[in-house]
Amino acid sequence: MAAKRRILIAGNWKMNGLKKDARSLAGALGTKMSKLKAKPQSKPEFEMLVCPPAALLGPVVDAVKGKGIAVGGQDCHANEAGAHTGDTSAALLKSMGCKYAIVGHSERRTDHGETDAMVKAKAEAAHKAGLSAIVCIGETLKQREAGRAKSTNKKQLAGSLPAGATAKNTVIAYEPVWAIGTGKVATPEQAQEVHALIRAELAKAIGEAEAAKMRILYGGSMKPGNAAELLALPDVDGGLIGGAALTVADFWGIAQAV
Ligand code: 13P
Asked: Where are the beta strands (DSSP E) in 138-199?
């Protein structure tokens, strides 16, 4: 029997928004979640997460306090502390009130040269600090067109999966690079094929029972209009949402599709 996994609707705000925008977006989502929670018959069937830029964590944590919305960082350093100008430690994220840290986003792999080994170390640092790691993988258009979508994801997963990964401390996000911010979304067949592959690889790495419980998110131009179809796929357990996480209407619209 398929394991029941709680859908995770995660917003990655990337480098967007100022303090006032963050406050108003988080505040409005908080109000919507509170209203939903207040209705006994409609207990949210999903978990909501917002990942603002590091400098906005404080205001966002304050804005969603007690509203049933989790907060996460977009990255963390592999080391606990030290001379790493501009970086953020997992322990600091935790102390700010975060529950999650995204690691290995393709934009960080590209902009900051992050390798699978670095992503793995960051995920392990997140665990050590008591955070759940959202480990991102995904192929480029060139890799897909060369017929290497599966092998690329397999390799990235094997290299980036933290030691001691469990369904509780780790979430995988499949984000095909060609679908990020492009308006091109993976077809349900493409998404399910890679998600099923990821789960099969996880089963080999951490055992079938844990793999069956681990959440695998889809990311790449998810919008209210395509979310229902993607979230209904057997191995899609939520979304990691960029552009559509920046407005209440779109992000809430996606959550409503659960
Ligand atoms: P978009 O939803 O803007 O395509 O971004 C996806 C993403 O990169 C989330 O991490």
From this structure: 170-174
Q: State the pLDDT at residue 4.
A: 80
| Architecture of the domain delimited by 7-16+66-163+175-256 | Alpha-Beta Barrel (3.20)
- CA neighbor of 7 nearest in space, from 238, 241, 228, 166: 238
**Whether pLDDT at 46 is above 80:** yes
Rounded to 5°, the CA angle 197-202-207 comes to 135
Q: Which of 182, 216, 241, 247 to mutate to test the pocket of ligand 1 (most atoms within 8 A of CB)?
A: 241
Q: Which helix (H) or strand (E) holds 20?
A: helix 19-38
Element (H, E) at 122: helix 116-128
Residue 235 has φ and ψ, to the nearest 5°, of -110, 15
Lowest mean pLDDT among 28-37, 104-113, 243-252: 28-37
Residue type, 4: K
> Considering the chain, what is the average pLDDT of its residues?
96
Residue 1 has pLDDT above 70, yes or no: no
Counting every residue written for the chain, the total comes to 258
> Model pTM?
0.97
Q: How far is the CA of 241 from the centre of ligand 1 (A)?
A: 5
Measured CA to CA, the distance from residue 87 to residue 151 in angstroms comes to: 31
Ligand 1 atom 5, closest CA: 242
What are the extents of the domains in the chain?
Answer: 7-16+66-163+175-256
